[in-house]
Amino acid sequence: MPFVTVGGITLHHRYVEADGKTPPVVFINSLGTDLRIWDEVVALLAGEMPLLAYDKRGHGLSDIGTGVHSMNDHVDDLNALIDHFGFNKVVLFGLSVGGMVAQGLHIRRPESIEGLILSDTAHKIGTAESWNSRIAVVERYGVEAIADGVMKVWFTPDFHAGRPADLAGCRNMLTRQALPGYIGTCKAVRDADFTESARRIAVPTLCVVGDQDGSTPPDLVRSLADLIPGARFEIIRNAGHIPCIEQPEALVALIRGFVASLAPGETHG
């Protein structure tokens, strides 16, 4: 069954096994999404490397537990999930808030991180004012009130024009997320600042961003890459905030190259 209870919370996940010594890649989803955003990426990579995607606390089919009070709640869940599967070393792929969760786990257990792929994310995202404004609107009117604006930064105009059914489906995914999970995670992002810890990341790191990302623009993601010693920075063309949906083939090419560049060795128990 695609559910596991760890640390008192039940998480929905999808694990695709693979042979060989390639480290497992763990995908951490963005705010207002669930593990389905990785479907095309997982389909393209299946069999090449172990792949684990899951719904963050308060998102998709996962519990919210005692709530989302800080980024540490999401880090706790990821930490427990990795232990549940017995992984020794992992590559973390974090999208947006998922990238912050990945940075948080690196602080906690750097010895378990083989590499980081930080997509459309930053060391600090937005301002207290911008997050408080969003939270106030959502608390009063629901996620529906911001959905159209979110779609504009998630996806390019070409996606809006050429893939209306996919756009509608992604909008449905956003508006059907549980309100406490969405609001709690907004507050977690508002309060998170990984500026200093990013300077201490000592594992291979790839920072990627869609060239038309309206949520975490390329210059912001580049500033994260500049903080991390030796980090690579790549721009994905014709993509907004969620390249794994809009340009999965380009993203998979970057994942393959990054994982291949890592030193071989024992990767999981």
Q: Which features does this protein show?
A:
269 residues; alpha/beta; eight-stranded mixed sheet; globular; disordered C terminus
Written overview of the protein:
- The chain has helices at 39-45, 71-85, 97-108, 128-141, 144-154, 157-162, 164-175, 179-191, 195-198, 218-227, 243-246, 248-261, and strands at 3-6, 9-16, 25-28, 51-54, 90-95, 113-119, 205-210, 232-236.
- The protein is globular, with a radius of gyration of 17 Å.
- With 269 residues, the chain is an alpha/beta fold.
- It starts with a strand and ends in an 8-residue tail after the last helix.
- The longest helix has 15 residues, at 71-85.
- Helix 4 runs antiparallel to helix 8 and helix 5 crosses helix 7.
- Strands 1-2-4-3-5-6-7-8 form an eight-stranded mixed β-sheet, with helices on both faces.
- It is 45% helix and 16% strand.
- It is built from twelve helices and eight strands.
What's the rounded overall pLDDT mean?
96
Number of strands: 8
SSE sequence, one letter per element: EEEHEHEHEHHHHHHEHEHH
**Widest beta sheet: strand line-up:** 1-2-4-3-5-6-7-8
Short summary:
The protein is of the alpha/beta class and 269 residues long. The chain is 45% helix and 16% strand.
Topology:
Layout: E1 3-6, E2 9-16, E3 25-28, H1 39-45, E4 51-54, H2 71-85, E5 90-95, H3 97-108, E6 113-119, H4 128-141, H5 144-154, H6 157-162, H7 164-175, H8 179-191, H9 195-198, E7 205-210, H10 218-227, E8 232-236, H11 243-246, H12 248-261
Parallel strand pairs: 3-4, 3-5, 5-6, 6-7, 7-8
Antiparallel strand pairs: 1-2, 2-4
Helix pairs in contact: 1-12, 2-3, 4-8, 5-7
